[in-house]
Here is the input.
Amino acid sequence: MSESFRSSETKFLEKTIRISFKFNGKTFYGYKGDTLASALLSNGIHLVGRSFKYHRPRGIMTCGSEEPNAIVQIGGNGVFTEPNVRATEQELYEGLEATSQNCWPSVEFDIGGINNLISPVIPAGFYYKTFMWPKKFWYSLYEPAIRKSAGLGKSPTQPDPELYEHKYIHCDVLVVGGGISGVIAANISADNGNNTLLINDKSSLGGSTIYQDDQNYKINEKISSDWLNNEINNLKNKENLTILNRTSLAAYHSYNFLLARENISDHKSLNERSNQLRQRLWKIRAKKVILATGAIERPLIFNNNDRPGVMLASSVKKYIDHYGVRCGNKNVIFTNNDTSYETALSLNKKGLNVSVIDIRKNSSSKLVQSVKKNGIKIYWNHTVVDTKGYRKIKSIQIMQLSDDGSNVTGKKINLDCDCLSLSGGWTPMVHLFTQSGGKLKFRDEDQVFLPNTAMSDQISIGSCNGDFELDDVVNNTITSIKKFLDITSTSFDNLNIHCPKQKENRNIWLLPNDKPLGKTKPFLDFQNDSTAKDIKLAMREGFRSIEHVKRYTTTGMGTDQGKLANMHALGIISEAAGVKMGSLGTTTFRPPYTPLTFGTIVGRGVGTFFDITRKTPMHEWHVENKAEFENVGQWKRAWFYPKGNENMHQAVQRESKTARESAGILDASTLGKIDIKGTDASEFLNRVYTNAWSKLGIGKCRYGLMLNEDGMVYDDGVTTRLGENHYIMTTTTGGAANVLSKLEDYLQTEWPELDVWLTSVTDQYATASICGPNSKNILKKLFPSIEFNDENFPHMSFKNAKLDNVDCRIMRISFTGEHSYEINIDSKYGKSLWEKCMETGKEYNITPYGTETMHLLRAEKGFIIVGQDTDGTMTPIDLQMDWIVSKKKYDFIGKRSLYRSDTMREDRKQLVGLITDDPNEVLEEGAQIVRDVKKKPIEMLGHVTSSYFSPNLNKSIALAVVRNGKKLKGNKLYVPMKNKTINVTVSDYIFYDKENKRLNA
Amino acid sequence: MFIINCPFCGERDQSEFSAGGEAHIIRPKQPTELSDDEWADFLFMRKNIKGIQFERWYHAHGCRKWFNVVRDTSNDKIHAVYKMGEKPPIK
Here is the structure.
């Protein structure tokens, strides 16, 4: 197919590089430098998609990030497919494949178009009002149907194979926007010794001035585009300036922290981009920020203003001047201001047929004079009342406006038209300014919100600050930057600027029609299909806040976030409510400015890089010996070690039995270890644990329970006194970091008088725990110089030792109830220690066991696991651990809370054991416990916290928290499950070796 | 994302710190002498100010020191930082 709409030469395209691409399966051609939108338009294609709700045919409206309609699926069906790409921003590359979204079977003929015919019965709030009843229809009918029609485009079904990365950058000055004011700002900033970063979302610098090839606009006697081009060339030689093109500012947070997405390879053909980064997320910290984000042209709101071929006037100008593409042969410009007359002149210069409809009564601007001089027909004081043409606009009907603009009069005039350019004035892009916490002010003359007070060190310049004339833009930019950067003179002082001064706009937010509003379709949000009617309906139904109207009508809630017409929604609300527009405020501008793909947000943090993996020094051994692993926080812990074809249950039963009958070994390196030194170390432990520590002898160990100040159990572990003023504390695996910061908190803020020093040594020591009746024999062989009898080395004591001349600490402590030792060694010898233990223990069938067996063994003994049997609502008394709470100590963390009326209640949930009637029935952890299954509502007494089949007792055991549990011992309770109810009896929570005989076995 | 001027390390990114709630709440020296209400007041009751707030921060991924910050909660501006035990430089 030929590009019949490419009408003129342009220096912005590389005409020697012809590019083929596919749109909806058909092959077309464009040139290097084209966007998908300009290439489609050059082939005469306007219809690119269907609207979200009514499935109306929609065409390309704009040439930038504000595009509401021309959003397409890029990249076919493969893993590289991406929905909702704006054709106006997608650069053309060889082999690009794009398809229309939200239409079936095709964009030309779309079944969903029936919604347009029934539109009178699906107004705003239709979903909220309709899908409320009957209730059972929701799951069977409504939800599946809504789900099917929800969303635009197709998500890829495979993981994203492309590469993304994050990069930090610090700069003195960040300039956002590569238009004329951004270029001037970057020049001045860099020239004055500032490390400057310039970010521009287009492929090259220059904004809209760079194609302003018009004698009316001159700087220092040069046409403005030539002058700017020269300044852009000057930027290239500056060492302290970094320019990032194709980079879009996504978010502006407080303290000048900004996120920007750089497109690295989206504009390259698939062959060129192999193994390259796709996008980079820049994390920018700037001392000062200069926003030069420009302005977006407003459409006009009238009946059927959404047909393909209806575009923004400034975009039509860019397509002809920048891309050499004409959007129509019979052009009509519909305007309320002077800037769109530039479009008329550009089209006229290319010999194209153009006429103008202006809702103003006249204008004396030089631009208008030039248009008149060229013989272009202007219909003053007229408005468009209707448009015709289904897949592309064919004609329009216009009528004269009444004097006050509230109505139309006279006869309808029909005009042929295949491209209608709209211009309703300009909206400064204040999104980033408000994201950073800035407050806006309203300027009545041209009805714009402008930056007022900023929260961080920043300024807004150019049209995003409300300057729309070339001379104002340049002069005010220079003045503001001098003040902002504290500079007295610049190379831009005393520029001689010529431009046609513009006259006032005539602002009518919703243009009048000869038909009642109910019979018309004046679209506001083109992507979400909300009309002025919907806004008025919302107001009739009592909505007043702009935030509520937005959500009720979905105005501004599309992927374009209503960049085009949110202002019109505000205008219509303010008129209807009779309040000043400035007092209404705006909806909240939230990041990102344009959609970001998830790949960019996560960067390299995918797969194994998603989170840090902590491995113990023995990890390799566990891997070699086929352990299954469990994630405990960031740690990988050996879970169980299946032999042959064993499943988890079989492996755990074998490991548990061997540990009690002969010997078991556990990798306990993940337990938190805090080294405590200082003359007040004992006093410190007295204050942080519930029990007394002053009398603990050197070389002895003690179990401690740590509470929160609210009296609830926080952590537990064994602490060993290594010397007079030296302890080593162990914490739970998951609690290590939090315990350390909690202890630091008390030391630094409440008890600074204590001489205590804390050091985390979790990673410095590897720990092997050997338990079972043969543990002593194994230790004897490992450490022949130590006497392993109960007098010399009793339970709860510690010895320094050497293994092959390497220092070790041996603690005789037990979490299984068996005779047991923990050997701690410098981490780098962890694996050797483990291997040595395995080798030495071979004759006793030493069996490595994982966390699951550890949990089972300690449950048999009724030892709690903080975080499993407790949940931040259990006091030591609830856990029946009264024995560990000192009555004598004056104070410890959480003591006072144990005497609050609520914590003293007798009917609190308390830790108990449960025995199932059927000894083979293992309860589900988390299952609810009740007394009476018939009485509704069923009273929940508590839940199962730990549950196992005990091979040593040959029956099912469980720990549970049950309301008033202490008093319920011996009572029958019930655990209702989905298909049955399990009968249980409340028991003691120690199931095995109640007399602790095995500790010394 | 704030920049916090740690009194021990200097300006660092907020991600290195964790917030510790309202500052200058002194743990009672004799908790057992307090009524339930008085203890609950210490334990649970915190101000929720729009405006200047005195709060504690912890340089968790840095020097592990706790310190105080004066922050305006309405705009996140940090007006001062000072060490534990020092008097606030701003009223």
Remarks:
- The first strand of chain A starts at residue 14 and ends at 23.
- Chain A is about 20% helix and 30% strand.
